[in-house]
Design goal:
The protein is α/β, with parallel strands linked by helices. Helix content is 40%, strand content 18%. It starts with 8 loop residues before the first helix and ends with a helix.
């Protein structure tokens, strides 16, 4: 029995009815898509194609080089680069699957287009506090990843047998990135059962982990050195943060995805419960922020309350429209309010 998570049986029937005839389907992940967003989207894309549907993945913007090995990546439409084709496809779509986000504001410039679509929306997502824009919502914040949920979705459709090695590779990649190689607390025994099933169906775990985690460039490693050199430890708050300015990114030939995982290094320090990285983005005029925590301290709430963001209890993102200096000052002032939580 491979059905590992609950999905409303009415919703299952509704989707089965929708997919019983040919549909034009769009699959949309969040802006700045990560491994789970791309893995779940391409995994679902291969599956729906195998069912004879017309389907495209449309990403709001580009994604990192270390994800571009995934089968089907050449067929992805990039909303920024392929704007006319993406808009035309979306406007004619019968169904729009939104993956790995639960608020339409998470797709950047695509937001007004999605808000105006006549398509039936189906949300598959594992973040907290979902919005109600979708006609069908499969939301479970206890899940390790949206890719694990796509596996569950396929099993609900009675189609585990249809999982090819391409689907398995994509979903495995999504799970392995969003669980930090199975290190995070969201990794359950069910996650491992799903992964075992994916490996049995052809996922090449060694190849996938190698291409995602072991393809560093000298520039990226030196950028990591720069970030670690900038690390500040605030012992009173069991907190560590680091910064990267636009100048430092440029000096190390920064490419999208190069800072992936940097924030986790601070969390490996003894007694550190809260780790943050602030990354300047001059083009967008913001400081991008990643938050990580251990234990019960909710970075989701912290990001929502103070930095226009959100995510999970132990991993979230946000942004600041102030400059780096003012952002850090504001952040440090906030910590006093959380001292009790952070020193428990």
């Amino acid at each position: 029995n491979c059905i590992f998570a609950r999905m409303n049986s009415e919703d299952v029937k509704a989707i089965e009815a929708l997919l019983s005839k040919p549909q034009k389907i769009a699959i949309v992940p969040h802006k700045n898509p990560d491994g789970d967003a791309i893995g779940s989207s391409l995994g679902l894309w291969h599956y729906l194609k195998a069912k004879g549907q017309e389907v495209r993945v449309i990403v709001p913007n580009d994604y990192p080089r270390f994800l571009k090995w995934m089968p089907g990546t050449n067929e992805v439409l990039n909303f920024e680069r392929d704007n006319a084709a993406a808009v035309e496809y979306l406007n004619n779509a019968d169904i729009c699957f939104t993956l790995d986000f639960n608020h339409l504001g998470r797709v950047g410039q695509m937001t007004p287009i999605l808000e105006g679509l006549k398509a039936t929306f189906i949300m598959i997502d594992h973040h907290q506090a979902p919005d109600s824009y979708a006609q069908i919502t499969y939301s479970d914040a206890k899940m390790s990843s949206t890719s694990e949920m796509v596996f569950n979705f396929i099993s609900y459709m009675g189609d585990v047998e249809k999982i090819s090695s391409e689907i398995a590779d994509c979903l495995y990649a999504g799970i392995v990135t969003d669980t930090g190689s199975f290190k995070y607390s969201s990794t359950t025994s069910k996650t491992h059962r799903v992964v075992a099933e994916l490996i049995d169906r052809g996922a090449n775990s060694f190849k996938v982990q190698n291409v995602i985690f072991d393809t560093n460039t000298p520039d990226r490693l030196q950028l990591l050195g720069c970030a670690l050199n900038n690390m500040v430890i605030l012992e009173d708050y069991n907190t560590a943060y680091t910064t990267l300015s636009q100048e430092e990114l440029n000096a190390h030939n920064y490419k999208k995805g190069d800072t992936e995982g940097f924030v986790n290094y601070s969390l490996t320090l003894q007694n550190i419960r809260f780790a943050v990285i602030f990354i300047e983005n001059k083009e967008e005029g913001i400081i991008k922020i990643s938050f990580r925590s251990e234990g019960s301290f909710s970075v989701n709430e912290f990001a929502r309350n103070h930095f226009h963001g959100g995510g999970h209890t132990n991993a979230a993102g946000g942004r600041s429209e102030s400059n780096m200096e003012d952002t850090i000052k504001y952040f440090k002032a906030l910590l006093e309010n959380y001292k009790d939580q952070l020193s428990k």
